[in-house]
Design a protein that fits this description.
Among the domains are: 215 residues, Glycosyltransferase; 106 residues, no CATH class; 34 residues. Strand 3 and strand 4 form a beta hairpin. Strands 2, 5, 6, 8, 9 and 10 form a 6-stranded antiparallel β-sheet that branches. The protein has a 4-stranded antiparallel β-sheet with strand order 4-3-7-11, with no helix packed on it. It has a 3-stranded antiparallel β-sheet with strand order 15-18-17, with no helix packed on it. The longest helix has 22 residues. With 596 residues, it is an alpha+beta fold. It starts with a helix and ends with a helix. It is built from 17 helices and 22 strands. The relative contact order is 0.08.
Length: 596
């Protein structure tokens, strides 16, 4: 029994030590599983007590809170919340319900009904030809003829809606004429397009409406520019979310892009992380660079107060979902580092659900009414909303990362089409690196020749600043960077030594009696086996005198003090018992008792 107890105690201590080591080596999958379990514990049965955004994100992530979300709508899923309909809340609800088989038609119509013409943009009509040409421009009941000279300048205005601007190279469209359809015809081959700029800015943006025609052919243009708002002024954040939600449900969102793109660099709008939305909608490499440059050195995104970093990081990861970048990997590492023991983030179901959906989304069961048909599993194509023609959007299939399921592929983009370059072996990319059809390392920045430096010769990296899991090394870099390498791992051999010593101590306590016997045997050179037969001392002869004949047997002498006993069986021979023999006999007796 004592032996069995000792074995059990040893096993218990080993299990504790193994659990300590394994806890430090939790895999990414385990962390994700813990987060999903934590979210379910906080949400299941409690949907009525959490906020509207938490309900929407939970519905996206785990398919929970659908009925509670619908109950907070105005007029049966027309808009959210029921008290005062808002663009962002309605957009989140549309996005979540669409994934879970909910009816969103009325909500989509409500969003589209909030369109406004932005007053912050100026629109121009540009016409270009190889040489001098005369062009007719008609709109409504008006028809005007203008001449474009060899120097590309326009000779006169084209009615009240079109006045010369930008040093007479373009025609400015009057604010009141944005709803007009402009038809252009020239006597030479020509191209025409619409361009725009902010009223307070100098950047010129070219719209996607670029058309060409041969001599006497026609092109047509209409200003298609809107924002969204529930008031008289445009709501930029609401427009971002509403445009994204409408793109996920197959609506035409091209008219909202000019406003969103032009106003993205406004200081007041930076806190909404517009580059993430524009990357998901347009798949433009420009926004990959912008978004990755906005990341903090610790690995997260944060555009306003400290509480926004989980929401901002989730939004950025959602946009980078199908793009392999070092920045996305750094963000994941940071999230796992700050994840709470419960598995959640900030003990907040909204943050946790949004992070999970952006980081590692899972298909929902049919029972929950959610998506089970993955777009690419059925031979379809996940495309950005702007790359998929509205008629080709398949609502019955689902894509992640802000993409829509398209029946036609837009084709893999080459590095040049992604507006990138391929760096040579001795060059380094200054921006993000993405995959293209002709290169796995398409640089979205510029390529600079790498100069040999002491740091890289020692197999370290030169960076602007070292990450949390790195430390600065004592080697030089070029360009003012610092040399970074992985932090020296602390040695924990002493922990294992301590565990082994504890185990040995416990064993010594449990088997202390056996150890005493073992040490006793070593001390007395005792060997296990039958005890030797002991006999009394026999007759002894005095030593022979020198020179005596050794072959003769000396007669035995009987001394006077030696008493003869009676003739017969000899009595027992007395012998002295040493203290050591007594202890040995007691030990053997105990061993026999323990063996029973």
């Amino acid at each position: 029994m004592k032996k069995m107890g000792g074995i059990l105690l040893i096993i218990f201590l080993l299990l504790i030590s193994i659990s300590i080591v394994s806890a430090a080596n939790d895999t990414e999958t385990e962390k994700i599983d813990n987060a999903y379990n934590c979210l379910k514990e906080k949400v299941e049965g409690n949907c009525g007590t959490i906020g509207l955004d938490a309900q929407s994100f939970s519905l996206l992530a785990i398919g929970e809170c659908k009925s509670e979300l619908e109950s907070k709508s105005y007029n049966d899923n027309t808009c959210w919340p029921s008290g005062s309909c808002k663009l962002k809340d309605t957009a989140l609800a549309v996005w979540a319900l669409d994934r879970n088989g909910g009816n969103t038609e009325d909500a989509e119509s409500w969003l589209l009904s909030q369109k406004k013409v932005p007053e912050d943009l100026i629109w121009y009509l540009e016409i270009d030809a190889d040489g001098k040409t005369d062009c007719k421009i008609s709109y409504g009941s008006t028809e005007k003829t203008i001449t474009i000279d060899e120097d590309k300048k326009i000779n006169k205005d084209a009615g009240s809606c079109l006045s010369r601007a930008q040093d007479n190279y373009w025609l400015k469209i009057d604010d009141g004429c944005y709803d007009k359809n402009f038809t252009i015809s020239c006597d030479q081959s020509f191209i025409s397009t619409l361009v725009y700029e902010k009223k307070q800015g100098s950047t010129i943006y070219v719209s996607s409406q670029t058309e060409s025609a041969s001599a006497d052919g026609k092109t047509e243009h209409t200003v298609n520019s809107y924002c969204l708002s529930t008031s008289s002024n445009c709501d930029y954040e609401g427009s971002l979310w509403a445009t994204f939600a409408l793109s996920q449900t197959g609506n035409d969102i091209s008219g909202f892009l000019p406003y969103l793109i032009a106003m993205a660099d406004e200081d007041a709008n930076q806190k909404y992380l517009p580059s993430a939305f524009l990357l998901m909608i347009t798949d433009s490499s420009e926004y990959i660079t912008t978004l990755t440059n906005e990341q903090k050195t610790e690995g997260y995104w944060q555009t306003s107060d400290s509480n926004s970093r989980f929401y901002d990081t989730a939004l950025a990861l959602l946009a980078l979902y199908s793009i392999n970048t070092d920045q996305a990997d750094a963000a994941k590492t940071w999230l796992f580092d700050v994840q709470e023991d419960s598995g959640c983030w900030r003990n907040n179901p909204a943050d946790t659900a949004f992070i999970l959906y952006a980081l590692s989304p899972r298909a929902l069961s049919k029972g929950g009414g959610g998506d089970t048909e993955d777009c690419e599993d059925y031979g379809k194509y996940c495309e950005s909303p702007i790359d998929c023609v509205q008629d080709n959007v398949l609502d019955s299939y689902f894509c992640y990362g802000g993409k829509v399921c398209c029946s036609v592929s837009s084709g893999d983009k080459t590095c040049d089409e992604r507006e990138g370059v391929v760096c040579s072996e001795n060059q380094q990319c200054t921006g993000a690196t993405v995959e293209a059809s002709d290169s796995t390392d398409c640089c979205l920045g510029s390529c600079i020749t790498q100069e040999e430096n002491e740091c890289e010769n020692q197999n370290y990296d030169c960076k602007n600043s070292c990450l949390d899991d790195e430390e600065e090394q004592a080697y030089t870099c070029t360009g003012g960077d610092v040399c970074c390498g992985a932090k020296s791992k602390k040695s924990y051999w002493w922990i294992w030594l301590l565990i082994i010593l504890i185990i040995l101590l416990v064993l010594a306590i449990i088997f202390r009696n056996q150890l005493k016997i073992w040490f006793f045997r070593i001390k007395n050179k005792f060997k296990r086996g039958p005890a030797p037969t002991r006999v009394g001392p026999g007759p002894r002869f005095p030593p022979a005198p020198p020179g005596a004949f050794r072959g003769r047997i000396m007669p035995r002498m009987i001394l006077p003090w030696q008493q003869r006993g009676p003739v017969g069986r000899p009595g027992p021979v007395a012998r002295a018992v040493s203290k050591t023999d007594k202890e040995l006999e007691e030990t053997l007796k105990k061993l026999k008792e323990m063996a029973k």
